[in-house]
Amino acid sequence: MKIVIAPDSFKESLSALEVASEIEAGFRQIYPHADYCKLPMADGGEGTVQALIDASGGQRIVCQVAGPLGQPVTAFYGLMGDGQTAVIEMAAASGLELLTPEQRDALHASTYGTGQLIRAALDAGARRFILGVGGSATNDGGAGMLQALGARLRDGDGQELAAGGAALAQLATIDLAQFDARLAECSFQIACDVDNPLVGPAGASAVFGPQKGASPAQVQQLDAALQRYADVLASQFGQQVAQLPGAGAGGGIAAAMLVFLRGRMRPGVEIVAQAAGLAEAIASADLVLTGEGRIDGQSVHGKTPVGVARLARQYGKPVIAIGGCLGSGVEQVYLHGIAASVAAVSRPCTVAQALADARQNLQLAARNVAALLKLGQAL
């Protein structure tokens, strides 16, 4: 029997590879001679770099870059085993988790550090890029990223704009004379599971600005600034991005990637699945196991377990999901190819206890799932 194990990480406790290893350990107690194939997964957010370097035999490379408010931060990117594909989590350089709630400043936060990660990967020889855009602290339309890559964003007096989304209200021209020439040789995939446009009631500022520290008045200010940005992109480059689905992802960085890096938006779990060879593994499997820290109604919106299940359903393979916990609306996942879902936590406990005992809980849950399967086979 071949069993494919393709989970996401359990946030704050276990990486995707560690989750897969504990599930395998639990199953081996009941099926010691099965053929196990572990493929760590992610959906484009936290853990995407680790999942892809684990799956490809790549390496994690640490860099010093500018954080969202210009402060030095230690960030990272992944170079996959082919030596040509860089995996970048925008949150590593420009993320909300790099700031305290009091520090959040959507008006001035910049994606400059994300551009520095791209430049570092270019220096290392990467020419294919996967960029996860979740968890950003920014609302600058990717302007900081462009500046880090050599573009010059100028106001009507020819002065370069300051950092942050608010400054885009003064944008007059974008000068690409010093834009890194190596980018013309590159391909970019944008791991994106939202379809928000750049501006408007469903745009980057209105939907995501408040969680990045923007007041209602600042949301309007930022939306107007991004509209100005979109107008310049339209008049100078002939690119209409204001209402383009997905252009508002990552505080609008997707818009810059679409226009200047010829990026292609795809669901993050699809990108990771393709890079990891998940379809090929599932095609010859008898059973697929997946999971993430919490499985609930939101899991159907681009999360790893449902992404894995949808792929497995194409091959007629059964899927069981093991989550750290099961939440409201979990029954929705059964409409997308998951046959059963199980919670790893088996007793009342605090969140801290659940995180501390994640390995033991997960392995025991996997062992119990395997035992039930074997019992069913014997009946």
Automatic annotation (TrEMBL):
GO terms for biological process: organic acid phosphorylation. SUPFAM superfamilies: Glycerate kinase I. One of its GO terms (molecular function) is glycerate kinase activity. It is an enzyme of class 2 (transferase). Keywords: Kinase, Transferase. It comes from the Bacteria. The keyword Transferase applies. Pfam families: Gly_kinase (PF02595). Its EC number is 2.7.1.-. NCBIfam families: glycerate kinase. Belongs to the glycerate kinase type-1 family. This is Glycerate kinase. It comes from Duganella fentianensis.
